[in-house]
Amino acid sequence: MASKQSAGSPGSQQTFNKLVEQFGPLSASTKTLNEGGSGEPTQPSVSDVAPFVASDVLNKVALLGIIALAFGIGAAFFKVSPVIGFVAMLVSFGFVLISFFKPAAARITAPLYSVFMGVGLGVISRSYAQGNSTVVPLAIVATTAVFFAVLFLYRTGLVKVGSAFVRATVIATVGLLAAALVSIIFGMVVSFAHQSLIYLLIFGYMYLIVGVMNLFVDFAYVYKAQQAGVSKEGEWFAAQSIMISMVMIYLALLTIFTGGNR
């Protein structure tokens, strides 16, 4: 069940705790004495802070996606150099680290992440589109379709995000990073054909599977945070997490549609 998703996984518990500790809960059970001095607690004080709303998180994800798309189109149109694109992606990763250690900063780092990641994705997309100009719009449409499909499957309960699912996601993510590192280390000693195959398997199909799994976990965090009563400020942190998963899915689909040739 989704309500159990944070149990049993240190990574998931830590992420959920960041939302709760930094942005909630909204109301505090502050006990005060009645005027009569009976010593009985009065009703807990009600916070005037706006609550965390899952639908608003999704709206913020849409905004971040539009920002990334706009800057990606701009980077491709103005033919930004690969070096600048690489630096932009490094900068975007820096914003992710900032928000991880300081979730309250996500309202600033999330849009900036989308700006710089959009530039990097624009450069990457342009290189992929040189052989086939249709792969980029196809990957964008497919990524959007995956987003709504995952949301539908989670909300209808067809896919349960329990502790085992979260643990599997963490393990798969770590395994993917290890496989990517091995691919980079040994990339220069294998033939180009084998490089394309390895790249397709790791950064295509494996990346897609892990990206989708992370997206399921992200949705579980969002709806659990809403139930926990965290404040509205936590929405940007959650939206940025979803955006990171969306980037993974987009890059995976882009790789698959081009057959691993980059």
UniProtKB/TrEMBL annotation:
Key words, A-Z: Membrane, Transmembrane, Transmembrane helix
Listed transmembrane segments: 61-78, 84-101, 108-129, 135-154, 166-192, 198-223, 235-257
Record Pfam families: BaxI_1
InterPro entries, per the entry: BaxI_1-like
PANTHER family reported in the protein's UniProt record: CONSERVED TRANSMEMBRANE PROTEIN-RELATED
Protein name: Unannotated protein
Organism per entry: freshwater metagenome
